[in-house]
Amino acid sequence: MKMYHVQKLIVIALLLQITTSFSQEQTRISSIISNPLRFSGEVVKISGLVRTYIPASSSTTAYYLLMDDYSDVIQISTSDTPPVTNQKYCVTGILYTISETNGRIKFFVSEQARYDGACNDYPIIQLSQTNLSFGKVELHSSKDLSFVISNSGRSTLNITNISVSNKDAFELINPEILNIKPGNSISVKVIYTPKEEGNYSAIITITSNASNDNGKITVVGLTSAIWWKNPIFIVLFGGGLILFILLFVLLFNNKKNVEIGKATNRKTDMLNLNSKASVRNNQETNSASANKRTEYETVIIDTIPLTIRSFPGEFEIVSGIDKGKRFNVGSKSTSEGQIVNIGREQPDPSDMFFHIQLKENTVGRKQAQLIELNGKVYLKNLGTTNHSFVDGKEVLPEQKVELFSGSILQFGDVRIKYHQ
Predict the structure, then answer these.
(1) Statement: the pTM of the whole predicted model exceeds 0.70
(2) Is 151 in the same domain as 81?
(3) What is the domain extent for residue 22?
């Protein structure tokens, strides 16, 4: 007798295990329609659009008709809040069958749970933002921002790694819990600590078992010098002796004035335009070439000889004191096409006609290239720390972006419009 009860309990346990396993998978409505007795008393999971909702009456409970993607319809009885017509739901419930005298079988599903959307059993990653901007941060100072990772799916989101591409300037403080249950979220802190002046950017990559590919965040930050280290502040407020020495040198010793101006540039990244212009003029006097130079407050361009091919189009300065001034530049023939170099460095004599020199300390020595190939014009970014922008969008290192008439190029604080 005891053995009989043990065998009976084993059979019941097996049936419960089979029922639980079956209910975890979505069932086609057409399968239920073709053989309702097969699912009678079982928990089924189905999804579809609500076509009609019928409120409860004195003799019937409330129910609605659910239609799947194959236009098959089934009746769902419910005691919960009414569903929204024409909205998709995932429904779990017990299938009941009723045998009629004419031999037909009526059936319906008694709702146990209802979720918005399809029956997705996988995790879905959602980020509070895809761009994180720190704005300007003083040199060697720190600023932290946070972003949120959420799981809008129906199974646990397992995060295996969170990394940042530029570890010199950005640091991640990963949370202790990296397994996010459905409907939950975690916060991740990012710390920005610039070690040099310039513009910084990085990509945060989140690796997980999410069904969607939404695990990247672009991070950008700017850097400004510490105000109390600025020589202008020292000259104005630093004390009588320092002020007297600087004024004496500036008024009575032009040569030392140039040297002090150059030293000030190295310390503060503020260009002494007079000193730089003097150095360039000396080089031009010693050069065998008698070419004229065009020098603005923001850029320097060598006048193109008749023997040099001009780069197609014209350039217009659209920011700063030189706003509205236009210029042309020569181009150099290479395997990549006709090119023009852009950057902070002074060009070699052999490249002086193919170079736009930027008098801007927040750009790289070799910042970018203009390339003309097969009738099209491109900007190629060469900088890794200091970045280039076209129409407000960042150009990644070694990336080429096609230019059109009216395109705005930005290098640091210098903005130039291209005219074809």
Answers:
(1) no
(2) no
(3) 2-116
